[in-house]
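INFO worker-7 received task bundle
INFO bundle size: 2
INFO processing item 0
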Amino acid sequence: MVKKREFPEDGELVVGTVKDVKNYGAFVTLDEYPGKEGFIHIAEIASGWVKYVRDHIRENQKVVCKVTGVDRSKGHVDLSLKRVNEHQRRDKINEWKNEQKAEKLFELLAKELKTDPQKAWDDFGHTLADQHGTLHAAFEAAAADPDAFAEGAKGDWVKEFVKIAQANIQLPSVEIKGQLEIQSEAPNGVEVVRDALSEIERSDYEDVKISVVYLGAPRYQVKVTAPDYKVAEEQMRKVTERAIQLATKKGAKASFARTDGHS
């Protein structure tokens, strides 16, 4: 990952590769800071008493550590393995992998622009990463909404950047589910149910997908796939309320409940 800073910040989570394991700790190369190395003291390897460091960490192992101290004058970076929980470790590894992919795409961009990658970083890459938080987030923004991205980014590189983003970035999505029950004893009950269900699959957004699966009368599974939970929840509420309102207006009994642990 290309960094403008020479050293990580205190408290930052970093990805590293274990270089050498000693009885008193382990030396780790910092993957995101080329040429930089950190040290995990035995007291920061794991919670509780650690008798043998190698029981917890080995050479060439990929680790996520928390920076606990930085001495720039001496080039020392102190790290902790035990202060990183599993959720933080997983998120950081995913972020690191995404940034690696983004950097490969940025190299491809530089090639298409017939310029040196470092020059491209200096010209607009660092600014772009700062504006969006990460380079990968910038590619996601370009893939999700090219027009909005182009409005905030100026330069001859924008068109090619968007093209590469749309061809290579799979936008993140979330999925929520619920169960809708509709019962009608009216002579045209089948038609009532069909009309109510048709209200569900009408999404307000192009990037939101809503599907209905028959589970067995009178139960139907409703699934919403959206860019984030906020949009997914909004669409689930809207479409099920529309369906229930139409069904009850025509004399049917209708109810909805979530089945994915959310409420």
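INFO item 0 finished
INFO processing item 1
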Amino acid sequence: MEYLDSHPGSSAPEIARFLEMTAANIRYHLAIMLEEEAVQVSGQRSAGGAGRPLLLYNLTSQTLGDNTMHLIGAVLDALAEGDEYQIILERIISHLLEDLKLESRNRITSFNQAVAFLNEHHYRASWKATPDGPQIELRHCPYQELAITHPQLCHLDTQFINAVFDLELELNPKRDFGKDPFSPCVFKPA
């Protein structure tokens, strides 16, 4: 990966020469990296004779990194400073809910569909019935890195969960990122 970072558009034989390995061995590892989306085929060129053209490889944007987290953090900070914070949160939630299709009027079935929707968005959600009402648990924060420094995301999630389940729930307890990173966020009836 270091070689591809400094030599984008390299072929398996070029990488093999640099690493002093066989081209077949490099192709094997590149195939694994392709599956993991760490590298991508960026083109091909003639091998200089008969035979198949050489595939050229680059790192993917996922591997190279981006500035998305910094940008989103700045947007969240700017939102929190504005007078229309609540209105903008409601608009964001409306967009997030566009794909939600609850097809049943049965409360249990609709809760299961809501959990499936959340899990499609990487929350690792579950729900259970309690004497006080339904309790929703999120065992993964899909934007944990940002939530640690931008607690307004937890406020957004609370409103989002309320909209998904059509309930008035409050976040208690909130995940403890420092002491127990696998602790869930629990939403209970308000």
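INFO item 1 finished
INFO post-check item 1: The CA atoms of residues 60 and 186 lie 36 Å apart.
INFO post-check item 1: The chain has a mean pLDDT of 89.
INFO worker-7 idle
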